[in-house]
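tool=predict chain=A
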Amino acid sequence: MTFRSKAFEIAQGRVSPVLTPPAEKVADLYGSNTFSDDVMRTLLSAEAYTKISNAIRSGSTIDREVADEVSAAMKSWAISKGATHYTHWFQPLTGTTAEKHDSFFDLTIDGKAVEKFKGSALVQQEPDASSFPSGGLRATFEARGYTGWDPSSPAFLMDNGAGGKTLCIPSVFISYTGEALDYKAPLLRSLVMLDKAATAVCQFFNRDVDKVTPTLGIEQEYFLVDKALYYARPDLLMAGRTVFGHSPARGQQLDDHYFGSISPRVNAFMVDFEFEALKLGIPVRTRHNEVAPGQFECAPTFEEINLAIDHNALLMDLMQKVGDKHNFQVLFHEKPFAGINGSGKHNNWSLSTDTGINLLAPTSKPKENLRFLTFLMNVVKAVHDHADLLRASISSAGNEHRLGANEAPPSIVSVFLGKDLTAMLEELVSKGEITLEKGENFYYKLGITRIPHLQRDNTDRNRTSPFCFTGNKFEYRAVGSSQNSASPMIVLNTIVAAQLMEFRKEMDERLAAGEEKKVATVEILKRYFTESKNILFEGNGYSEEWIELAKKRGLSNISATYEALHAYISDKTVHVFERMGILSSRELHARYEIELENYIKKLQIESRVIGDLALNHIVSTVVKYQFKLAQTARSLTDLEMLEEAEPIKEIIKDISSHVVIIKRLVHEMTESRKTANSMEDLLEKAKFYGSEVKGYFENIRYHVDKLELLIDDEDWPLAKYREMLFLE
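tool=predict ok
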């Protein structure tokens, strides 16, 4: 029995574990493992609680006395729940989370054991920064770096799987010289600037608004593969995706998996990780089968954006840990399987005021609709003016496989508003009037009396648009499933904040010149629409016609990651990021280098995996199988069964032709990789990897996948698509 067939036998024998639901109601379970506001209110003095609450709401500084009191309360709470260690939990530019655990246990000067956690340890830790990506911000021998407590994201307890728990403290990560080495630090800066800019614009419409908070709901797509079959695929293990694999006869063409009945084993996994997520204060609400077989999705309730991004990063880690218990490997790669849909992370973004208003929700009141239009058009203008930067923010080696593949938005950044909103904006330009009423919804008449009338919203959803308006929010659909959502949200927050400041500046100038407020607002919005309307598109973003139309409109269509990333260091980007105080030119160039290096390394690993599998797994297996066929053909020939031997000889020839080509292509790819590795210039190396080295991948795959159809099923060394994707 081959390793693959043994792995398949193990996978087929899996049964769903019996889950015992928690005794608490979900509402009581929610946040039970977080150092929440309720916990702080209970454990802290009134003065300390007020100071920490003010710091969270307004960003005021937390003094050392308060930090000492919070750390003591946090230690007491964590230990009471079984925690033995604490860590600053941060998000370096690796795309994953990081942590360094320290024990509460310590010894006094006279050798007595104590449990200690001071305010200084809560506020700051010092992980080694030399081994994290820095993009040249510091030399490798300069090891010092700092993590700093982010009080706006609650500390939480993570089960370490060995009977103990660790207190995790969400933190920023900076270099010794003060530059950001993570996603959180610039995200927090962008939130401050967006709040400032949006609140200033809100003041034109409502003086009661003192704060604007961006909200985010992240839909997370993923695949599940049985652990045994995962380990039977070295490419999944090493590269996160299958570099070979012939499409099965049945894939997703019947559309029968989407929203289909969830299998008991998968459902048990979902229920388990949802309970664990709820304990951590992650408000997961939705679960369902996605389009591709073996693909699923979960989604939370909308949250403040910093918390939403922390929760998504934590959720991905949690899903992997719970997956282990259920003998599943969770795949977050954007395209783990060829021929079926890949996975994305839909970021649903909106703006809310402290008075309870969603600034991107149309209403039935003309004054409020003018406010809605103001924010809507400023977002559209920001996306129009910085489309290439927004495209760069979701660029990666994994997402390169997915974008524009008739399953995800294309590389062309466009905005979908829906025909009603677009018509209304056209009317605003031509007549200077706003006629949209929120209440103007239609009802479907089904002709079935027992079914209630179904209400149709005044906006549609366009799944082919990378940036679409969906009624009261914008959905950025192009984000990759493995990506940290902070990257595109930093960009979106920053460009919208900068645009709102420009709007405020022009409004102030017009009002100072004596222009009436409504007239000034409408005139500016009319110009914004005229300047930005070429990015608006209502049709099929997958079509060839759109590619041609976008070209005529002057919109960028940047398909290669190494080309898209350049927007990070353009003069326009550096100007807006430095002016807004989000990232310096030095930090932007560092991130550009980090992303290029990551792109190169991913392709380098894939190339090595392809060469290794092709020669050491596929060709060696095929040669053995050829020998069996040759013996059979020879036996038939000896028996003078020449006609019967001929088809076998043809198969041997077909196999040989593919083997010869595979060996030649692997050799050429290896030499190409050596050429790339000798290049000093990072961009030139990335270009060479993205065009020359990567150019061999599909050609080698074609011939390997042809061999999969020729070799006996029992002899094929790799777990097949039908085994991995259709496992219940």
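Residues 269 and 326 are 6 Å apart (CA to CA). DSSP finds 25 helices and 19 strands in the chain.
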